[in-house]
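Hello again, I could really use a second opinion on something today. My current little project is about how a certain protein chain folds up. You're getting the sequence in one-letter code plus the fold written as tokens. Here's the protein in full, and shout if anything looks odd to you:
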Amino acid sequence: MATGTETAADPEVIGPPIDRMRRAARTAGALYLLTFISIPTVALYAGVREPGYISGSGPDAGVLAGGILELIMGFACIGTAVALYPVVKRQSEAFAMGFVGTRVLEAATIFVGVASLWTIVALRRSGVGAEGSVVGDMLVSLYDRVFFVGQSLVPAANALLLGTLMYRSRLVPRGLPLLGFLGAVTLVTYNFATLFGWSGETVDLLALVAVLPIAAWEFGLGLYLVVRGFRPEAVAALDTAPAFPGTPWAGRFAG
């Protein structure tokens, strides 16, 4: 017969399995780093943006390869939210669910963008000729608008949601989420500046200032989680409440 003493000594009741928490951190961190795989698409998509691409000749490998990289990035985006959700929902389930939603939305816009560029390739291979140039330009414009929403505005929302969870829980050093907050502000400022037609050297400088903090936040978070994992004292603090179903550890008072 189990006694109260035996229950208290049960490692599944006393605290979270550290190996599972470590795996969760490493998985999320590796997926965050994997999202940077799409950086080469800037060069790979150069050809499809050239006038007359849809009626011209030549290889389509760059567009196809760039699309594959973006698809990998999209699935990695979803993976980061899935890996972190069981952990961060112990801080705030509403914020954690919001982060999952915005991450899935970001991935969905990436998939739409890839589909629009691959449609251009399909039209080119079907031999539509010069009359298809207007359609090609529209599809490139669609990609740019979808990119604006999915990979410029949505990442700002991601930074605010996940940054808040990480800042409050102290699962990572607070300097990282503060960098995410800064990146969200600068990114939204730049996006609205371009949306309302601002141009010139000031906006070009703002573009650089806007991208660097948000990129540093995501890359730094991924690197920290892979190398260090969650801070043990923060994990212990999260485990003072009963566990929700599906969390990777039992919870101190789950018994």
Residues 13-154+225-238 form one domain.
